């Protein structure tokens, strides 16, 4: 009888843990949470952060400078598949999120962290590899920027705030 009680307790514990993990995974399968806006860190249970120096992802643009109101193409390239991501442009001067994304690939959606469309995240958990976006600079001067992306390879493995090279604002005095 004692063994039956232990088995029942073990099964109930396993079922509760499984349901918790499934519900948490489902909550993030349609994009990053607003709670990740400031630090770009996934809010999964027991995730393992990997060094941004050992990632397999690059984020870049073919423009070295931009003017206020310019549209800047942004490309994310990867040598491995991943499920989730969060992409932002940030001012070099103070790390504030800036600008708006105006073109998104399939499997992506806009997220409003501080202003409408200032962040892009995944909209499903399909595997992704190479993605292209278009970011629009604000109409007023903002200074130099960098693009940052956090990548979630699986529910437990991610890389946070992989950064692009600086994209300088042209026409500054």
From TrEMBL:
Q: Which GO terms describe its cellular component?
A: membrane
Corresponding gene? Reeld1
- Stored Pfam families: Reeler (PF02014)
Superkingdom of this entry's organism? Eukaryota
What keywords does the record list, in alphabetical order?
A: Signal
Task: Specify the taxonomic lineage.
Answer: Eukaryota, Metazoa, Chordata, Craniata, Vertebrata
Q: Which positions make up the signal peptide?
A: 1-27
Q: InterPro entries, from UniProt? A: Ferric-chelate_Red/DefProt (IPR051237), Reeler_dom (IPR002861), Reeler_sf (IPR042307)
Stretches assigned to the Reelin domain? 22-173
- Respond yes or no to whether keyword Signal is given for this record: yes
4Fe-4S found in the keyword field: no
Q: Known Gene3D superfamilies for this protein?
A: Reeler domain (2.60.40.4060)
| Protein name according to UniProt | RELD1 protein
